Amino acid sequence: MESKYNMKTYWKIILFLLMTFVIVAGVTFPIVPQPSHWYEFPNIPGLEEKAKIIFFHVPTAWLSVIAFLMAMIYGIRYLKNKNLDDDARSNAALQLGMLFTILATVTGSIWAKFTWGAFWHWDPRETSIFILLLIYGSLLALRSAIENEEKRARLSAVYSIIAFLTVPFFIFIMPRIMVGLHPGSANDDTSGPVVDFKMNANMQLVFYLSLTAFTILYAWMWKLRYKILIISENNKIERG
User: Fold this and answer.
1) What is the per-residue pLDDT across 156-179, written as a single tens digit (0 to 9) for each?
2) What does the pLDDT look like over 28-38, one tens digit per residue?
């Protein structure tokens, strides 16, 4: 028990250190034409100082995919085992998926404002994430409208499976096969997909550390949200 507690403490310390470094580096490290120090980032044509939002925008979008994938996986597990704990885990992932999708939308809109002059342009990537918000927002509305636990879990599981089938198309395919403003669009012949940006080794290090830190943060938040849902459900049973 003590070793398990120590392990959780270590992960929290690691998360704190990673997030602190990513935030400090992502905000304060300068972007210069010719980096000569370890704390300098290269200038990426078309993005310049705005490239720093990559450290926060991309990880939130990444976690949206991970969360919706987990919602589907635990939905499948519920259909197989009929265990309401799996439904609670799926629901926790769904809620976090919506949270990180909203964060990805907000950070993307900020990027768009300073890059293209307005918060929203109905660019293919903006349109695709808006559609995902509608799809998964409808799932949350469905869950809140059904009182019977088993019926809610069953319908949510089926919905989460069907909904996730659209995620690869809207996140990875549609924005790359259509002409748009976002880097990586079909007409983009300079930067390419975000992971192919002309980062130096230091920028890549911060980028991948950010992905790692946000992934650990998601795992922690998912466990906490699952426990909160279980406690809330038990309280309802006791009051009922």
Assistant:
1) 999 999 999 999 888 877 777 776
2) 999 988 888 88
> pTM for the complete prediction?
0.89
Q: Which amino acid is at 178?
A: M
In degrees, to the nearest 5, what angle opens at C-alpha 199 toward C-alphas 195 and 201? 110
Q: Is the pLDDT of residue 228 over 60?
A: yes
* Six-digit token string for 23: 């935030």
Phi-psi region at 34: left, alpha or beta (left = phi > 0; alpha = psi -120 to 50): beta
pLDDT at 8 over 80: no
